[in-house]
Design a protein that fits this description.
The structure holds two protein chains of two kinds. Chain A is an alpha/beta fold. In chain A, about 45% of the residues lie in helices and about 20% in strands. Chain A contains 13 helices and 15 strands. In chain A, helix 6 crosses helix 7 and helix 6 packs parallel to helix 9 (about 285-305). The two termini of chain A are about 30 Å apart. Chain B has helices at about 5-15, 25-35, 40-55, 70-75, 90-100, 125-130, 150-160, 185-195, and strands spanning about 55, 65, 80-85, 105, 140, 165-170. Chain B is globular, with a radius of gyration of 22 Å. Classes of the chains: A alpha/beta, B alpha/beta. The interface between A and B is medium-sized, with 17 and 18 residues.
Chain lengths: ~425, ~200
């Protein structure tokens, strides 16, 4: 339902960049139903734990990326009471205002019963009520989400870092998102075929159709990630230096699992050392890379059949965070392995702010900033630095168990709402 | 709880096994048959028994048939130098209804989809290769569906058929007739542009 905009309102939206104007949740997490007009000022959600503050941010993130930042099991997003009551579906709907248009973005999750008694989760994405693919979400709504557990991104398992890169790119790059979908599906099929060949034998040539897809899309994925990491690294370093008062620099390193451009010896060295990855040498075109990847898959077939899985490709890429200090010369530290918790926290803050700058540079509009309970983890100086970013974006949604954590001045210009048991109410006084 | 007699429940359960038929529909169909006075149940039972007893696969094209070889393979009026490869017997029916194709068929009975347990060994591919090899077949049309699975299957068929030196073609893909350009998705439009023709 779009309300016609008055000329006055239009002038406001011309000035305005991207923001979520209205959010509607049905059976999402602990929200049975939420209808919320989001204010133009920063929104501060407060309330005790497990009341639904984070779920609201999660819903907005889901609309931007098509996936939850907290779980890879979409069925967990469906309100369990609704499910028990025989309504196994969840719906997230928003009205997104961009500089030049207003769009409805919607994600529906539905459990469909299968003949064999189990259920299958169906995810439907709709834009302006027309059914679309996940890749079509790119460029509709961009968000940067910062949560306390994001610090695990640096030292946690590599799958989390790959997912971070994918979710960030899928917000802006439709071609990347499509390539990722095709790659993931071909990988699943090829692994099933590898297990079949291992257990029952058969014609290994049936792997070729999937290898073709993996090679072609794998190169798109590797190129996208390489460019993104380079863009983030540069910005994150600048912010990291500001945050540490120039005491420490930061570098993000993309380490592709399969690097057709690197000779085997150098590749081995790269796994050990910390020298930055430079990318393929000039003259190696995309076609050459695809051919090299295809050839590598072909060469490894016997080994991969024995193991029953695909061992090379972007699904095994790594991203590392390396820091050093001008005071210590050339000495560098891999923060994932040797960084202190405090260093990791600073690096992840720099990463998130770099992501903000990247999305803004890429789209020309500031993304929506979602900050979940992160202030508690930061010292006063970093807290001030982060809150100064809230003024730079069009829309910010923050959560806190204790609103007193924010300065009186900040609370004055924010809209405070209380979240309790899946119900959001505006506080009487700001 | 009052339950229906065993023979009623049995038919409901069997019908509910069919694709697209849930328990409610199955029950409705069952009671319809029970009330029916024209012996529909008897005719249906006979038709069902014949379905399996009288039909078999054609030993040439693997389409479903009552005679072997099937009427299409046995027809001297058709062009036996062109084979159209399809996924399912229903695809043959669709092409025959269009009435323009005068060659013969080969039915794969499925597509390559390892994660669903469908491998090339489960398809009638070896039979197709044997049929083409050393024959006077000049052209093989790959008419698998324009889906991922259909494309993977066609891609594998290509690797098996190419060494035989036969002409291999794929069905044209693009806009549906009577469709609207503005509602076509990006992939379809890309394919339609790639496959454009001089007129």
């Amino acid at each position: 339902m779009l309300i016609p905009l008055s000329p006055l309102a239009l002038s406001v939206y011309n000035r305005a960049a991207m923001r979520v104007r209205y959010l509607s949740l049905t059976n999402f997490r602990n929200y049975a139903r939420l209808e919320l007009a989001l204010p133009e000022r920063p929104l501060l959600l407060h309330g005790a734990n497990a009341q639904g503050k984070t779920s609201l941010l999660e819903a907005i993130y889901l609309l931007a990326t098509g996936s939850s930042p907290l779980t890879s099991l979409d069925r967990q997003l469906i309100n369990w009471e609704a499910e028990a009551g025989g309504l196994p579906y969840a719906r997230v709907w928003a009205e997104v205002v961009r500089r030049d248009r207003v769009q409805e973005v919607e994600v529906i999750l539905e459990k469909k019963p299968l003949a064999n008694g189990t259920t299958r989760l169906q995810k439907t994405i709709r834009i302006d009520r027309v059914r679309k693919r996940r890749a079509d979400l790119a460029g509709r709504l961009n968000v940067v989400l910062f949560m306390p557990q994001d610090v695990d991104l640096i030292a946690g398992p590599p799958a989390g870092r790959r997912r971070y890169l994918d979710d960030t790119l899928c917000q802006v790059d439709r071609a990347y998102c499509t390539a990722l979908e095709h790659y993931t599906e071909a990988l699943r099929q090829r692994n099933a075929a590898l297990r079949h060949l291992r257990d029952e034998g058969g014609d290994p040539a049936q792997l070729a159709p999937f290898e073709e897809v993996l090679a072609r899309e794998g190169v798109v994925i590797a190129n996208g990630r390489r460019e993104l990491v380079a863009a983030l690294s540069q910005r994150a370093d600048r912010i990291h230096q500001q945050l540490t008062g120039g005491a420490e620099w930061l570098r993000l390193e993309y380490r592709p699992n399969f690097d057709p451009a690197a000779p085997p010896a150098l590749k081995y060295q790269m796994g050990l050392g910390l020298q930055p990855y430079e990318g393929p040498p000039l003259g190696v075109g995309a076609e050459g890379l695809v051919a090299a990847f295809r050839q590598a898959l072909l060469t490894r077939r016997a080994d991969e059949i024995a193991r029953g899985m695909t061992l090379i490709g972007p699904h095994r890429d790594e991203l590392r965070f390396v820091a050093g200090s001008p005071a210590q010369g050339t000495h560098e530290v891999d923060l994932g392995t040797y960084g202190s918790r405090g260093q990791q926290r600073t690096a992840v803050l720099a990463l998130k702010l770099a992501e903000l700058a990247f999305l803004q540079a890429r789209t020309g509009e500031a993304p929506v900033l979602l900050l979940d309970e992160v202030l508690a983890e930061l010292d006063a100086a970093r807290r001030r630095y982060l809150l100064s970013q809230v003024d730079r974006v069009e829309q910010a949604v923050l959560t806190a168990t204790d609103p007193e954590m924010f300065s009186a001045e900040f609370r004055e210009r924010a809209v405070l709402m209380e979240v309790r048991g899946g119900i959001v109410t505006e506080a009487a006084a700001g | 709880m009052q339950t229906a007699p065993a023979s009623v429940t049995r038919l409901i359960e069997e019908l509910a096994e069919l694709p697209g038929i849930g328990r409610k529909t199955a029950a409705r169909l069952t009671y319809f048959l029970l009330r029916d006075k024209s012996d529909l149940a008897g005719r249906l039972a006979e038709a069902l028994r014949n379905l399996k007893e009288r039909t078999r696969f054609c030993s040439v094209c693997y389409n479903v048939t009552e005679e072997d070889p099937c009427p299409i393979c046995a027809d001297p009026g058709r062009d036996h130098t062109i084979i159209c490869v399809v996924e399912e017997p229903l695809d043959v029916l669709a092409l025959e209804q269009a009435g323009v194709y005068k060659g013969v068929y080969h039915v794969l009975h499925g597509v390559l989809a390892p994660s669903e347990g469908m491998f090339v060994e489960d398809l009638r591919i070896g039979e197709l290769v044997a049929r083409v090899r050393g024959s006077d077949v000049e052209e093989v049309i790959l008419a698998t569906n324009p889906t991922s699975e259909g494309d993977w299957t066609a891609s594998y068929l290509l690797t098996r058929l190419r060494p035989l030196g036969v002409r291999i073609t794929r069905l044209g893909r693009g806009l549906p007739v009577g469709g609207d350009l503005e509602y076509a998705d990006a992939v379809t439009l890309t394919r339609a542009l790639e496959g454009r023709e001089a007129i």
